[in-house]
Every structure is written in C-alpha cells, then in structure tokens.
Specification:
Layout (H helix, E strand, L loop, with lengths): L6 H12 L2 E3 L1 E2 L22 E3 L7 E4 L12 E2 L21 H10 L7 H14 L1
Parallel strand pairs: 2-4
Antiparallel strand pairs: 1-3, 4-5
C-alpha cells in the first residue's frame, strides 16, 4: 500500500489493534501530504483508523483537490445513519403521595451513614430516573 515502511509502523499497528481498530484503505491511492519543497516528494502521512471488521466502515477517500492552501489533503468517510425510533416515556411520582414520601425518605442524607448507604441511595435514584 505504501512505498515506504518504517519499523515504528508495526508498533503503531499493534497499538491500534489493541483498541479494536484497523488501518483503513483509501478508495484512491494518492498522497495525503504535498511537499512545498521541490526536492522532497509527496507522501502518505495522514492515516485513518476504523472499527476492526466493520463492513460499513471499510475505507475512506483522500481529496487532494480540497486542500486549498494546506499541504495536507482532507480524508473523508461516509457514515450511514439509519433512522431509528426510540420510545421514551416520562416517569413521575404524584406530589404528596405515599410513593413521594418513601422516595424522599430513601434519599435523605440522614439514611446515608456510610459509603454503602450512599451507593444504595444513588442507585435507587438512578433507577427511578
């Protein structure tokens, strides 16, 4: 894929793999960095890492014509977002009800004498919310 390969690249790929990512293959094999010096060649220095084994996110595009005054070409990927309906509801406790009094009693600081009590109260509150 790249004409030049450094040993440090192997270390980078090991780290990337530990995050369950992999090096993305561009849809067009063009440089990502364009040298301002005529004695230096253009190179591929900008890389993209995507979710390992994903068929939806398997490659990216390099856009040298979008770089304007920059010496780096932008990299892009299309991520499809599916429409999804999420049911939501509102949970409430009727004011001055027995449930409200019990809920407040369970969460008052007077019942939290240690870390375990505080943890139970926080979990009860999280469950209610």
């Amino acid at each position: 894929m790249f004409p030049c390969h450094f040993s440090i690249s192997d270390d980078l790929l090991i780290i990337v793999d530990s995050f369950n990512l992999e090096l993305s293959n561009p849809t067009n094999q063009v440089p990502t960095r364009y040298s301002d010096n005529e004695h230096d060649s253009n190179s591929v220095i900008d890389l993209m890492f995507l979710c390992n084994g994903s068929s939806k996110l398997d490659n990216h595009s390099i856009h040298p014509d979008w770089r304007l005054s920059s010496n780096h070409a932008p990299l892009t990927i299309v991520i499809t977002i599916i429409e999804e309906h999420i049911n939501s509801g509102k949970h409430s406790i009727i004011r001055d009800s027995k449930e409200e009094l019990t809920f407040i009693k369970d969460l008052t600081t007077s019942n939290m004498s240690d870390i375990a009590s505080l943890d139970r109260a926080v979990n009860k509150f999280a469950d209610a919310v």
